[in-house]
Amino acid sequence: MSNEPEKLWDYDAVAIGQTGTETTVSITTDTLREYARATQHARGAELEQTNDATHPAAVLAMPSMVLAYAPLLRYDLAEHNGFVALEDSKTARRQTPFAKCDMRWHAPVVVGDCITATRRVLDKYERRGSKFVTFRVEAVNQRGVLVADYDYTCIFAYAQGQKTVPASGEAETGGTAVKPGQPVAEARRVLTAEHATVGSTLPTLRVTESQDTILGYNDIQLAGRLMTSNIHTDEEFARQNIFGGAVNAGPATLSYVEQMLSLSFPLSAFYSGGRLLMRAIEPFRVGHVVTLQGEVTAAQAMGDHCRVGCTVRGTNQLGSLVCLAEATLNLSLPEE
User: Fold this and answer.
1) Whether 193 contacts 331, CB under 8 Å
2) Residue 106 and residue 272 in contact, taking contact as beta carbons nearer than 8 Å
3) What CA–CA distance (Å, rounded) separates 147 from 140?
4) Other beta carbons within 10 Å of 261
5) Taking Cα atoms as reference points, which of 213, 221, 222, 207 lies closest to residue 289?
6) Class in CATH terms, 23-332
7) Helix (H, G, I), strand (E, B), or coil: what is residue 327?
8) What is residue 107's three-state secondary structure?
9) Reported confidence tier of residue 301, pLDDT bands at 50, 70, 90
10) What is the CA radius of gyration of the chain?
11) What single string gives the DSSP state of each residue in 266-292?
12) 188-215 pLDDT, tens per residue?
C-alpha cells in the first residue's frame, strides 16, 4: 500500500483550461421518462403515454435535462489531470457544492439524438473570502451542432464556515397541504409574444422536498459513475460540510425553476437561443416548501421573435430566499 500523500484537486491545484474526458449519451424515451420521474416533472404523464409510434423528432427533452445527459463530473476532471477530487479524498474529504449555473440552449434536443459532452475549467476566483471554480460544459449532437452549453460554479472554500441547520420543527411546512415530492402548480398560462408585457406575473410552482425526492434525483446518472455518498444522500458527511446538514442538489432546484417557467413558455422558447441563470442563496432542505414566483421584466421585438426577460424567486416557508433566477426566452412573432 502506498504511503504517498493524496494529490488533492483543491483550489490551488485547479488550473484554468484543465479538461475532462468526453462522454456520449443517447436520448431515448426511457431516459426522458427517467429524468421526469426523478424531477417530478409535469411532462412525466405525457411521456408515459409516448410509444414507439411517436415520431422521435416530436419528442423534445426537458431543457434542464442537459445537466443529466451532459453532466459536470468533477471527479473525472480531477482524475483526468492526475488528481483526487475532494469528494473522493480518503484524508481530507469535503464537498464542493453548487453556487450557480448559467445555461444556454442553441438547438432542440430530441429522442434519437446522440449527445457528446466536453468539460473544462473556465475560471477560478475569490470573493469575500470564499473560493469559487467555474466549469464550462458543452453538448454537441451527432451532426456536430452545439445544442447547449452551461457554466457551473462550485464553492471550493467557504469563508463563513457552516450554514446554520434549522432547529427541530423549523423545517415543518406550517400546515401547508402539500404532499412531499409532488409539485403543485397554478394553472398553465402559456404566453404569446403579444401578451408578454413587462410586469406580467407568471404562474407559481410550489415544491416540498423530501429525502425520497433527493435520492431520486441523485440516482439519475446517464454518464459517468454514480456518487452514492454526498451532502445530498449522507447526513453524517453532510454535517461536516458547509451547509451543516443534508440538502438537495442545486441542479434539482434548477429543474424546478425550468418547470415553473414551462407553465408560461413553450419548449421552443428555450431551444431557440434561451438562457437561464440560477443562483443558490440558501440550502433547500428536507421538509422545506419552496414557492417559485416570477414576472416578466423585459420584452423586445427582434426580427421574427420577441425576446422576453423574466426573474424568478424561490422562497421557503420560513421566508428565506432559496434561489434567484434570471431567464431570457424567445417567442415567435405572428406572421403579418
Assistant:
1) yes
2) no
3) 6
4) 25
5) 207
6) alpha beta
7) strand
8) coil
9) confident
10) 20
11) -HHHHHTT-EEEEEE-S---TT-EEEE
12) 888 888 888 899 999 999 998 877 777 7
